[in-house]
Amino acid sequence: MAKVVSKKNKFYTLMIIPHAKDKVSKMQFPRWGVHLLLGMVGIIFFTAAYFVYTYSKLSTEVQELEQLRQVAQEQQGQIISLEAKVEELNDETINMQTKLAEVKELEVVIREMVGLEQRKELGDQLELAVPRVQAFTASRGGEYTVFPEDVLGNLESIDMIIESTTEDLSQLMSDVAKRLEYLEAVPSRWPVNGRVTSGFGFRKSPFGGGREFHNGIDIAAPTGTQVKAAGKGMVVFAGTRVGYGRTVIIDHGYGLKSLYAHNTSLAVKAGQWVEANQVIARVGSTGRSTGPHLHFTVELNGKAVNPFNYL
Q1: Distance between alpha carbon 164 and the CA centroid of its chain, in Å?
Q2: Which of 6, 34, 104, 243 could form a disulfide with 288 if both were Cys (CB 3.0 to 4.6 A apart)?
Q3: DSSP bridge partners of 11
Q4: Over the stretch 264-301, which tens digit does the pLDDT of each residue have?
Q5: Count of Cβ atoms closer than 10 Å to residue 310 Cβ
Q6: 1-31 residue pLDDT tens
Q7: CATH level 3 topology of 195-309
Q8: In the chain, where the domains are located
Q9: Going by DSSP bridges, is the β-strand pair 293-300/303-305 parallel, antiparallel, or unpaired?
Q10: β-pair partners for 14
């Protein structure tokens, strides 16, 4: 059995008393030494406890940081993927804008081809349709990324262009249809294959008596040669006229009429619709004529005009 006793409060004595008859052992420790030892043990204990707590806390923080790092890597991958998609979408929007601009340019070409007046607002729309210069910003590693808002801006522009293009194409179809109808009606086809022997305007009368005004052109051709409608329209007269002999008059609309005179025979009747280049008569020399030929006249709003303005 061990027992600690005090000796004049300066030392601590540790006595070891065996159960047998062996000699009692004594050990003396200075009081200050015991206090120092206990203090050191206490410091070591609290230091160890602090390190255990700190290690546990740091371990938790390290785990959280690792989780955050993994999340950040995943988000970084998502960001890179989204940036790639944004750039791809940006390329597609530019391609769409280019194609829409080509459609607008095609409208200009079509209007020129059929002789339609160009719309003033088309120039502004063409400028809008041209792909805008893209804004870029420096980012990781010196790479460049397209701003998403730029893509959205392009998409808004495309939406506006598509809407206006749809309306424009609808209007263009209507305008072209009207223009083609006009071109089909206007007397611009040669009514007969032959040689022009007398032009429009003042001339020396072939019957003598000085100068006279010739309100059309004379085209010489063999008797029986086909006479064709110079344009689409309605036959408003098919019969015999004084001086003109067997005559056909076609109303083409738009204030235009054409007259075909001196025919040997007629192939149409009044009230009949005829197409451009449709056979309406045969060349002859009926009426006041010096030989087989076609007298061809064009009137605009009731006044004879030079047929060469249309042929």
Answers
A1: 10
A2: 243
A3: 7, 30
A4: 999 999 999 999 999 999 999 999 998 999 999 999 99
A5: 17
A6: 444 444 455 766 766 677 666 676 666 667 7
A7: Glucose Permease (Domain IIA) (2.70.70)
A8: 2-73, 83-185, 195-309
A9: antiparallel
A10: 4, 27
